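ok so i was messing around last nite and threw this chain in just to see what happens. nothing serious, just curious
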Amino acid sequence: MDLVNVSSKVIFLQIPSEIWYHLDSSKTMKYFYLGRQPYDPVWDLQKELHARRVSGGIGNIVLFVEHDHVYTFGKNANSNFLLDSKPDDADVIQIDRGGQVTYHGPGQLVCYPILDLHDYKMSVSWYMRSLECVVIESMKKNGVIGERKHDLTGVWIEDEKICAMGVRLSKWVTMHGFAFNVNPDLKYFDGMIPCGIFEYGITSFKEQGIDIEMEVFMEQVIDSFNDIFERNLHEV
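result:
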């Protein structure tokens, strides 16, 4: 096993399968960064981690990753929301979360919490608002005000979405999560109707004039995650 780096906050892995060397059933939340990966292997990893969390074989964990270019459809998504004008180098995958079509790609920090909500609050709405709060608090650390929109998930800067969310829960254990636009190529969003929403746009930290390394922002997200899920320091 050859790790890139182990910090006090997150374990950096060269390949996803190295994660099994670091998992146990302890109550301490663990964070892992998988680097840049194709979508399918990480989805398979999520499913296996989910099954082990349900059985109690592992504790709560959070995965971070940058994906290769991919459009994912939620289980009841409208395929017409993916446009013929989309770039040709992105995969298209049907998955098991809720929601419409979403893009993932380089420059986007994707977060997949595998959490048993029996340890927190058994409420889907509470969980979604908590994820939004994690993102909003992380943005504040960079002087950017993130907002919610009534009846829409995710985090926004005025009328532009900067963070998309889509989750799946089974036996109160979570999968999937959120995707935050640090500095992705926004042309890929032109190839779809993001999350099925016609009237609003897409933005990123880069578009907002924020230049930050992915690993730096990831550690800010971890701090916010610990505040909200582990120390309950913020109202959701």
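not much to say yet. The two ends are 39 Å apart (CA to CA).
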